[in-house]
Amino acid sequence: MSIFAGAGGLDAGLEQAGFETRLAIDVDRDAVDTLKATKAKRLPVEGGRRKYLAKAEIVHADVTKLTKADLLDLWAADDPPALLAGGPPCQSFSSAGKQKGLEDDRGRLFKDFVRAARALRPSLILFENVQGLVTARDQEGRIGGVLEAVQAEFESAGYACRFALVNAADYGTPQRRVRLVMFGSRRHELPVLPPSPTHARDPAVSELPRWRSIRQALKGLPLRGSSDAVWANEEMERKLAEVSPGRGIRVGGAVEKNRPGGHWGYRQDGFVANWDQPARTVRAASTPDWLRMKDGCHRRLTWQECARLQGFPEGWEFQGPSASRFRQIGNAVPAELAKALGVQAAEALKKGPMKRNAAPSSEPWPAAFTRRIQYTMAEHRTNGASRKRDRRTRAAA
Predict the structure, then answer these.
(1) Residue 392's pLDDT is what?
(2) Biggest distance spanned by C-alpha atoms of the chain
(3) Which residues have CB under 8 Å from 121's CB, separation 6+?
(4) Are 263 and 386 in contact (CB under 8 A)?
(5) Alpha-carbon distance 322 to 233, whole Å?
(6) pLDDT at 101
(7) Cis link prior to 89 (omega < 30° from 0)?
(8) CA–CA distance, 35 with 220 (Å, rounded to integer)
(9) pLDDT tens-digit map of 307-343
(10) Measured between alpha carbons, how far is 304 from 187 in angstroms, rounded to an integer?
């Protein structure tokens, strides 16, 4: 069962790993239409006989309003799902958003995920979200408190938990996209996290193939003449011409104790992609990164190219206006990453449940989580007061 299914990137990858989507639910009408149109097209799963979403009941519904009885009726099977998978909307924890956390209604949607788990009792759970969830503050202001709450909710429903941060580029996605993933289990051994990488940034160290680049991913797509291409105007061309590939138009920020020269970063709408590297994280906005063409002119990545960078199978039938397609694609889980996670889930299920009266235990958080939390705490001690003043000043303005 797929919850918060969106355009189906997670479903595509899980079906490549051998799962069948039996039920997919989302509140976004365009995303639901995308899933239905893709199902109707009968795209083969990686060239095989199975078709994507062939057995899926695709439902347009608000999960927050579905009762236990509703969920059971929609599932409509005697046996529970082998896997309940999904990623609640992440804008309230994303570094690209306002980071309101639990103060944002979207920041509490994980509880509806847990409600679905309580109702359906799946064997395994796959939960995916942004890496910012690791250091998100709870309502008491505790850094890491939100992730503690997420784990406590799943454990209260009877699921042991294992977390990891994974980079989609390590699994063949032509995009540097780091995500938080969690497996939950009631009776089976917890699936392995992270999955073993299939690609590497430096193949000389690991002997794996090099990360896939934008150039490799876009091979075969028309690079010019598309009606969906947006070209830079004269003023933007002048600014972008001064930027090296893999960098962007630089912007400054507040001066802080440990940054006497001030923060700096890149304008989200002013980054020039490097053809020979994986893309930056594909966002859910219709202003993706720029490509520098052979003649020196710049155009934005099209939604079709962003779909390639997210690993969607060729021919996936996106519906809705252009802005909606960018949103659906940017909110998706890369299919290659989903497949790698699905393989781990399938292996755990094949082993069968643990011995009678035995149950898995939650794993300690990875050391990388602790380091991130400690760093964020130190940052808060150093710069917390000045950042609060800066927010008040900007609010007053």
Answers:
(1) 64
(2) 70
(3) 80, 158, 186
(4) no
(5) 20
(6) 46
(7) no
(8) 24
(9) 999 999 999 999 999 999 999 999 999 999 999 999 9
(10) 41
Rounded distance, CA 317 to CA 293, Å? Answer: 27
Q: How far apart are CA 81 and CA 77, in angstroms?
A: 9
Burial (CB count <10 Å: 0-12, 13-18, 19+), residue 208: middle
**Nearest 5 degrees, angle CA 204-CA 207-CA 211?**
80
pLDDT per 10-residue tile (average), the chain, 397 residues: 97 98 98 98 94 98 96 96 91 48 60 96 97 92 94 97 98 97 97 97 88 95 76 96 95 76 83 97 95 95 96 97 97 98 98 91 96 92 72 61
* Residue 163 tokens, joined: 């977390």
Positive or negative, the CA dihedral 364, 331, 299, 316 is positive
Structural domains in the chain, sorted by start = 2-203+331-396 (3.40.50.150), 214-315 (no CATH)
127 vs 10: CA distance, rounded Å: 11
Q: Within a 10 A sphere around the Cβ of 386, how many other Cβ atoms?
A: 13
Whole-number Å distance between alpha carbons of 289 and 330: 12
- The pTM of this model reads 0.91
Residue found under tokens 């679905």:
116
CB 59 within 8 A of CB 24: yes
The pLDDT, as a whole number, for residue 97 is 45
For residue 183, give the nearest of 314, 296, 344 by alpha carbon.
344
